[in-house]
């Protein structure tokens, strides 16, 4: 554990100017980013007596091994740089207000040729518009079912859409007029997009306009004695009004605002946001975050607004039509908060730049807005209470698991980072391996890696494990090898942001991006799927490479025994042990990840094996053929002209493809 005094900057070397700073660990990974009006005052506070620091601050400064800073000219620049660094480095001690995965949302895949409407849980993606989140998935499905009779857009998956297009018949929703059936050409791409645009307009708040438009159409067809069409429009209007009734009017003046509230204690804070558009509550979101340092409500407000709306603006910029009008803006006209942050003017200017028009941040004092803010605050308090009840059991279990593993394997410290390797194959073919990572007892999927094992039929399982361990830790040694020094004057040009004089190019850091390389962060414990031979093979590889600070164990499936290299007998952990349960989860996750990769490779081999060896036909062209015709059977039924008409194909290649297919089937 590094001593903060070992990397404390020299007295007087820290400027008193405003700026942004970042702490990084011994491997060069950035673990915390912050900003300050006075860098000297803020950074000196981290190097005070450890016993007087906030618990999470103490953990952060003892994990860090370096500190750097950049001087900026204005507070708005500091806000932007802090947000950019948090987004780029994803520091483990920083709060990240990512969209939560608890609440379901209604997603519209506007980036596709035929957009799809569906219920979704998970992180936000490019090319998708989201409405909600809602409290329950059934609420979305009920609303969607009502609206499909008015806006008959596609709701099926890509596989179902493609299959019905191939067979030439729509699904049940197409027959009951709850889908316009673009899969069979009832509407073209533009007509279907117009339907989806009307649907998005309705959910974005332009409800009155659509209802009035439909009422006018109903009157027109009634005058033309088209009573069946008029009755259908009447029912559609009723469906729209029933959907509107599900969203209560809370602000009668048609306000567009986000209402934010917090509930917190010394270590954690809960935040709740109600999204009000057109006076109606359109969605609700909530997070619970850890505090890294003593943080009051104004500071919580500033950090939340910076990170949340910065992320929303970035997503809107990547989504077609994501911010084309006021109803779709990622930043609302007004943000109601419990207390104003100290840098409210700079924050307002920054948010105004994201929106493109003036944004107001204020504390509601009276009336409906004050009452709504109190409702949001009650929701935050309730969410915080429920989190405390769940978190107490979760943290206790994870801490106990890591402690039991440390005690059972005789480790010097708790294995805060665990990596596990598993090999998957079918009788020695398509051999692949997976590497999964758990930090603090939780999966860190961004660090997962996949390996393709060459000549594995001759190697066998034990040798395959050794091969993967060797490749992983060779990369680790290569990426953490000492690099040459950087220019000591870099970043200190007058009139430009200056960085601290941590001028040596640190091992494991990519000099171009400033981020850790893919394999530069070693585990405390390496787990392999297997018994004593697999564990010993992994340990031998580490010894050959000179890696001495990584513990190794194997977990055998049959009796769930933990094997330590060099020991004749396994370590037996209790069947009710939290440590054994964690090792099982790590092993099972590695197995799942390896199986998924193996199935992917095997599937590719099975679908294209008949086309292997065709002159001039590589993987890209094979994939294009299968995507266009849908199957090898349909490809066999095609003629030379059909194949030659595809981009990148000619008569000679088309003839070679058909010759290979018919020869294969002969």
UniProtKB/TrEMBL annotation:
It is found in: Cytoplasm. GO terms for cellular component: cytoplasm; excinuclease repair complex. Residues 259-542 form the UvrC family homology region profile domain. Pfam families: GIY-YIG, HHH_5, UVR, UvrC_RNaseH, UvrC_RNaseH_dom. Coiled coil: none annotated. Residues 16-95 form the GIY-YIG domain. Residues 480-516 are annotated as: Disordered. InterPro entries: GIY-YIG_endonuc, GIY-YIG_endonuc_sf, GIY-YIG_UvrC_Cho, Hlx-hairpin-Hlx_DNA-bd_motif, RuvA_2-like, UVR_dom, UVR_dom_sf, UvrABC_protein_C. PROSITE patterns: GIY_YIG, UVR, UVRC. One of its GO terms (molecular function) is DNA binding. Keywords: Cytoplasm, DNA damage, DNA excision, DNA repair, Excision nuclease, SOS response. Residues 208-243 form the UVR domain. The keyword DNA damage applies. GO terms for biological process: nucleotide-excision repair; SOS response. CDD domains: GIY-YIG_UvrC_Cho. Interacts with UvrB in an incision complex. PANTHER family: UVRABC SYSTEM PROTEIN C, UVRC/OXIDOREDUCTASE. Belongs to the UvrC family. The UvrABC repair system catalyzes the recognition and processing of DNA lesions. UvrC both incises the 5' and 3' sides of the lesion. The N-terminal half is responsible for the 3' incision and the C-terminal half is responsible for the 5' incision. This is UvrABC system protein C. It comes from Pseudonocardia broussonetiae. The lineage of its organism: Bacteria, Bacillati, Actinomycetota, Actinomycetes, Pseudonocardiales. The gene is uvrC.
